[in-house]
Design a protein that fits this description.
- This protein is an alpha+beta fold and 221 residues long.
- 16% of the residues lie in helices and 34% in strands.
- The chain has five helices and eleven strands.
- Strands 3, 4, 5, 6, 7, 8, 9 and 10 form an eight-stranded antiparallel sheet that branches. It has a three-stranded antiparallel sheet with strand order 1-2-11, with no helix packed on it.
- The longest helix is centred in the N-terminal third of the chain and has 8 residues.
- The protein starts with 16 loop residues before the first helix and ends with a strand.
- 35% of the residues are buried.
Length: 221
């Protein structure tokens, strides 16, 4: 059952871009992909395949787009397996990883760590009940402290919950981003120890709505 932090489902479509900036990372159109993956079928799409248990899925791509080689790594004592999706200009639009059932939420995302969530409860454990921690101060003013914007959709791999998280990178100075995240509950996991797939857009290169469109390009292996 989802945490009370995420108990209210909100729609921000009626907000202006300025009002929704903290919620969805609105930016200029020149920073968006030049096509809508949720649009009618593109005859130029081809199917890329990842079959590297426990990470197994297909994705429809266009000429020049590609999936990164599968990698494994340890983070917060979790054994993670993941890949990434790149555009024809080599921009990474998506991070894709399976999260083991025994993985526990680690630290707040930042400095090359984007989190690893099995459910909305895991995200709530990281960010707490303060909506401003994820969406910025404007969210608390508009929606109240317990209101987190969550979208739900179905994918070929299983049902997905989408939200936006805060992400930062700091060296001599800090930059802050809003990253859309999807947690997919796998209906047919390739490994019984991994029941959840996490997909996110690093640095908020996609909006939550656009990420939802890309989820429709995913398929079973």
């Amino acid at each position: 059952m989802a945490s009370k932090v995420f108990r209210r489902v909100l729609r921000v479509a009626g907000l202006s871009c300025a009002a929704a900036l903290a919620l969805s990372g609105c930016r200029g159109g020149d920073e968006r992909p030049d096509y809508d993956p949720a649009a009618p079928a593109d005859p130029g799409l081809v199917v890329a395949r990842v079959d590297h248990s426990p990470l197994a899925f297909t994705m429809k791509t266009r000429r020049g787009e590609r999936l990164d080689p599968v990698q494994t790594w340890q983070e917060d004592n979790c054994s993670l397996v993941g890949s990434g999706f790149r555009t024809a200009t080599d921009t990474v639009l998506l991070g894709i990883q399976v999260v083991p059932d025994d993985c526990k939420p680690g630290n707040e995302p930042g400095n090359a760590r984007h989190g690893h969530y099995r459910s909305l409860d895991d995200a709530a454990a990281i960010f707490g009940a303060d909506a401003a921690a994820i969406f910025g101060a404007d969210a608390a003013a508009i929606f109240g402290a317990d209101a987190i914007h969550v979208d739900r959709t179905n994918t070929a791999l299983g049902p997905a919950d989408l939200f936006t998280q805060a992400y930062y990178e700091c060296t001599n100075s800090c930059r802050h981003y809003r990253e859309p995240v999807a947690i997919i509950e796998l209906t047919a996991p390739a490994d019984a120890r991994y029941h959840n797939l996490m997909v996110y857009s690093p640095y908020g290169r996609l909006t939550t709505k656009q990420l939802m469109g890309y989820l429709k390009l995913l398929g079973t292996p």
